[in-house]
Structure prediction request, 392 residues.
Amino acid sequence: MDVIVVGGGTIGAWCAYFLRRAGATVALLEARTLGKGASSRAAGMVRAQGGTPAAVQLGMWSQEFYLAQPSDLGIDSGFTQTGYYMPCFTAADVDAAHERIAMQRECGLEAVWVEPDDVDSANPTLAPGLTLGASYYAGDGWIDPPRNVLAYTAALLTSGVTVMERTAFSGLRRQGDRLIGVETTAGPLPCDHVVLTGGPGLAAVGEAAGGRIWSGGVRHQVVVTAAHPELAPERVPMMFDVGSGIYWRPEEGGLLWGMSNPNEHPGEAVEFDLAYFTTMRDRMAELVPVTAGLGLRRTWAATIDYTPDHLPIIGPLLRAGEPVAGVTVASAGGHGMMWGPAVSRAAADVVLGGRSDVVDVGGLGLDRFDSRGHSRLAPDPIALPFPELTHL
Prediction:
């Protein structure tokens, strides 16, 4: 086998597909079943309005991939483009938005500034007069996470990737400094290269391989309200209140909105935290008054991954500060739907040729973190409020 990919979520699956499409023989290991983790429980938000050039490039590439799926695969991930507003509530928000728009436009993204009255008219469910304007990109939207799992499952099987479900990775097999395979619960498997993914479990995967990966997992919660005439899809573009960490979009005639608690200790968590939801529901009612008192159709929680600087990891595994030959790490840093295809393609490119045209991976490796996990890169400011570095 040329390459073994560890992890059957969005990153691992699409990476395996890209590798196979490039001609490599590929096996995919998944400890449970494909999409069993956060990939099938996400909210599906897909925006290119990132806060750094790398984030913008990854978002743009992923959107182009989703749009091309019907012709390339004969199936798609349900990408729906409705546009995405990032509202501003303070003068500092406005200044940051204008700087961000200028950067995004330099990257080729046609983001624009929208004046307050125009924000209100385009968002009739938003409480009027709240914002000082917003940044906006018409090409942003969302995918259907379960359909995305179906799409990558079909892509894996039809492209000839060997899928090994219920098979856990337990370590590397080496001969001197050379990688010769992996250890699994199904026995040893030979290979020339390994790609380590794993979402919120990636740190444990790295430990099994003998390295430290600066990635954590934390609870993320999503609700879908009951249907209401005022929440018809044409009345509800996507929005993200970055300050409170609440995003929302239309779903099933109601409103889907999600949140993360920055004060929660990281770790595996899939139970719904009613107390935190109750606190954030008050902010949601301020923003979209129709939600006050509106019943809930669905609620769920999932453990999602994050990195200290909210940016992806694409590069070699490190052991004692040195690259481990033949072992590549791929993490979307909590943005699996948004950046997943691009991160997966970039990781596949690194395995095959050491570089990628998707994004400059030179600064996205584990070597950007010091021994305490501090990154030399400025964090992406457009991100959910994950726990602080010291919690990792």
